[in-house]
């Protein structure tokens, strides 16, 4: 069976100089979007990797490369690239909070360090071209103990389980009946998902999980549902009076009804009104018209 360590050697990368890391965010919301970030927001995925906890941080000061994988199964990792480790800068708490990408990662669910924690290192990382065509497609078996999230490449076996024809990082979009996104995810949508939402017009629902209230809206203009939802992603409220009082981080977005792409605007608005009446979102929810 092909071993990833052998693949490193075939590219003249000494396994003794390589750390193999399987990223497993403990925050569920970040774990959901991290595979998307590898493909859609490599700048944020890089920021996620540049600062690590103490054990891996120490190992990175002595290594030349990291081979990154993302945990999508409990005993496996999906390839996310090989990176050269460069110099490192020491960050205090203020520097850590100001480090590019950290605030956006926090919005996606990452827990920031506490002010009383020791200073940390931020490494310069450069993604190399080795096996870049396999990003999202190559899966390795992760050796036990499975909770150990990094290894030295020279010290273990990493059998290649599969090389898929398509990326595992961006799976097919759920059926519109099952699609539920939170506000932070709207800004990191896979391109294929965004393309579908731009084609769909219809009636959507915004749920404030904090209050339990809901808002019904419709979309049939430029970029259809995508255009409306990206407006919420930018502003947090889309110009709606009651939504201004909500914390955008508590909002989730779903579709109540898809319509024909050539349905008249007046008919789409009529469907929106019908849903407002059935869900009582004027009296008990967030609709004000």
What does this protein structure show overall?
The protein is α+β, with helices and mostly antiparallel strands. It has two domains: 4-163, Archaeosine Trna-guanine Transglycosylase, Chain: A, domain 4, CATH 2.30.130; 176-279, GIY-YIG endonuclease (3-Layer(aba) Sandwich). The chain contains nine helices and eleven strands. It has helices at 4-10, 28-40, 42-50, 54-60, 93-98, 102-107, 191-199, 224-235, 265-279; strands at residues 18-23, 65-73, 76-91, 120-127, 138-141, 150-152, 160-163, 180-182, 202-208, 214-219, 251-258. The strands form two sheets. Strands 1, 2, 3, 4, 5, 6 and 7 form a seven-stranded mixed beta sheet that branches. Strands 8-11-9-10 form a four-stranded antiparallel beta sheet. A hairpin with a 2-residue loop joins strand 2 and strand 3 (76-91). The longest helix has 15 residues, at 265-279. The radius of gyration is 22 Å and the shape is elongated.
Order of helices and strands: HEHHHEEHHEEEEEHEEHEH
> Hey, roughly how much beta strand do the residues contain?
25-35%
Structural class: alpha+beta
CA radius of gyration is: 22 Å
CATH class of the largest domain: Mainly Beta
Distance between the termini: 64 Å
User: Averaged pLDDT, please?
Assistant: 93
Give the tally of structural domains.
Answer: 2
User: Helix content range of the residues, please?
Assistant: 25-40%
Quickly count the helices. 9
Number of strands: 11
Low-confidence parts: none
Largest sheet: 7 strands, mixed
CATH topology of the largest domain: Archaeosine Trna-guanine Transglycosylase, Chain: A, domain 4
Q: Based on the structure given, which CATH architecture of the largest domain is correct? A: Roll
Protein name: GIY-YIG nuclease family protein
Organism: Novosphingobium flavum
């Amino acid at each position: 069976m092909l071993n990833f360590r052998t693949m490193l050697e075939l590219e003249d990368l000494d396994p003794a100089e390589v750390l193999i890391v399987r990223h497993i965010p403990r925050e569920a919301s970040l774990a959901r979007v991290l595979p998307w970030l590898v493909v859609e927001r490599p700048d944020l995925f890089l920021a996620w990797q540049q600062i690590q906890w103490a054990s891996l941080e120490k190992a990175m000061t002595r290594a030349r490369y990291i081979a990154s994988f993302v945990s999508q199964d409990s005993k496996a990792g999906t390839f996310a690239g090989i990176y050269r480790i460069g110099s490192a800068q020491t960050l205090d708490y203020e520097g850590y909070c100001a480090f590019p990408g950290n605030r956006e990662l926090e919005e996606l669910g990452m827990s920031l360090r506490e002010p009383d924690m020791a200073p940390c290192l931020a490494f310069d990382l450069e993604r190399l071209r080795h096996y870049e065509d396999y990003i999202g497609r190559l899966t390795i078996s992760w050796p036990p103990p499975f909770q150990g999230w990094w290894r030295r490449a020279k010290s273990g076996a990493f059998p290649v389980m599969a090389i898929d024809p398509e990326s595992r990082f961006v799976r097919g979009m759920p059926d519109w009946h099952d699609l539920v996104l939170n506000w932070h995810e709207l800004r990191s949508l896979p391109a294929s998902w965004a393309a579908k939402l731009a084609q769909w017009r219809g009636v959507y629902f915004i749920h404030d999980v904090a209050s339990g209230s809901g808002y019904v809206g419709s979309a049939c203009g430029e970029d259809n549902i995508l255009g409306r939802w990206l407006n919420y992603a930018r502003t947090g409220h889309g110009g709606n009076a009651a939504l201004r009082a909500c914390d955008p981080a508590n909002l989730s977005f779903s579709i109540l009804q898809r319509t024909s792409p050539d349905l008249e605007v007046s008919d789409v608005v009529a469907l929106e009104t019908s849903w407002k009446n059935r869900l009582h979102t004027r009296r008990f929810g967030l609709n004000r018209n």
